[in-house]
Design goal:
This protein has 354 residues and is mostly helical. The protein contains 11 helices and no strands. The protein is 70% helix and 0% strand.
Length: 354
């Protein structure tokens, strides 16, 4: 009986881990979809029939005709071939298909374990949070797409950032559910370390949020250089008082003001985050035991790689944002945020060992 319970716990832990990995891949697919300009290629949200791509040339032409009615085609991609359309269609279709697959992978085992009463009350509460974030992500996914089908040729950057943020919260909630279910060892360091970790994690969260805005507004295309922004440490456009008005923030694509502002903030938060993490790494190395030195070294490696990827992305954003660098930069940012969250968890003073 005991072995049976242990095996079931292993199955649940594996199920949670698979779901976590799938959500991470989905976020990366979303980034690629955004960078390839594919997000508006499918103009309908059909939960059932939308799981199948066009089956013949007639259906492809129908789908292409629907895309031709969008502002993106009329202002940016007019004259594109059906072959090029199939390329952007693929990424959006794959992004949606992966989301449907995640739903199946989650729902079927969830019902199975629920019927068998394999979940304790604590795990059920965690899973309800996961379901809530997953539902919000789906809703805002369509809200985001719909925002680019009416007036502007791209999805609204604010909606995109909210969608991305919810996706990251979903990933973190699944990560927490998985780690908490398996159990983890407490690390004894100075009392100030958990609070310091939490503050760095908040800064990292703000940084990821502004990264979403930078990506949605394609700010890098206007400032593909480093360390200055087109020869200026502070872009002159954000120093003009007349630019600071509600209209410019709402219609950010009509002026270069907001894209310059969010990129300036994103760059400088990166420097702040790097300094905070370097200070943390030194303190952690001094206070944690030898068996936990890997945390400081791993954190140092992640932040260095993240900064370099950000710089490479900027320097190669000539005419278009490089898919490889952009995707890796986003992925590493999420890994950094989750690793900080993990450090906070294992270092919480109120944690009770399992």
């Amino acid at each position: 009986m005991r072995n049976k319970i242990q095996n079931e716990r292993k199955l649940i832990a594996a199920w949670l881990f698979v779901g976590m990995v799938m959500v991470f891949i989905q976020i990366i697919l979303g980034g690629i979809t955004r960078l390839t300009g594919s997000g508006l290629s499918i103009t309908k949200w059909d939960i059932l029939m939308g799981a199948l791509p066009p089956k013949n040339q007639v259906e492809w032409i129908d789908a292409f005709d629907l895309y031709k009615q969008t502002p993106q085609y009329q202002r940016i991609n007019i004259g594109m071939s059906i072959g090029d359309f199939k390329f952007i269609f693929f990424w959006e279709f794959f992004h949606r298909l992966w989301a449907r697959t995640m739903g199946i992978v989650f729902i079927i085992p969830f019902i199975y374990f629920l019927v068998r009463k394999s979940f304790d009350r604590k795990l059920i509460k965690h899973l309800l949070v996961v379901i809530g974030f997953a539902s919000l992500a789906a809703v805002f996914g369509w809200v985001m797409v719909a925002s680019g089908l009416i007036e502007r040729p791209w999805v609204n950057a604010y909606n995109l950032t909210i969608h991305l943020s919810i996706g990251i919260l979903l990933f973190i909630s699944l990560f927490y559910t998985w780690v908490d279910y398996r159990g983890y060892q407490k690390i004894n360091t100075a009392a100030s370390m958990p609070l310091f970790t939490f503050c760095i994690m908040l800064v990292g969260g703000v940084q990821v949020f502004f990264g979403g805005l930078v990506s949605g507004m394609k700010s890098a295309l206007s400032y593909p250089n480093w360390p200055k922004m087109n020869g200026q440490w502070i872009p002159s456009i954000i120093l003009e008082s007349g630019r600071w008005n509600r209209q410019n923030f709402l219609l950010y694509d009509k002026s270069g003001f907001v894209p310059a502002l969010v990129l300036f903030i994103h760059r400088n938060i990166a420097y702040l985050l790097f300094i905070l993490i370097m200070f943390f790494v030194i303190k952690w190395y001094q206070r944690a035991g030898r068996e936990w030195v890997f945390i400081s070294l791993t954190l140092l490696g992640i932040i260095v790689v993240q900064l370099l990827l950000g710089i490479f992305t900027l320097l190669h954003s000539i005419g278009y944002i490089p898919i490889l660098y952009g995707s890796l930069h986003q992925a590493t940012g999420i890994i950094l945020l989750v690793f900080l969250f993990y450090i906070y968890l294992v270092n919480k003073p109120q944690y009770i060992n399992k």
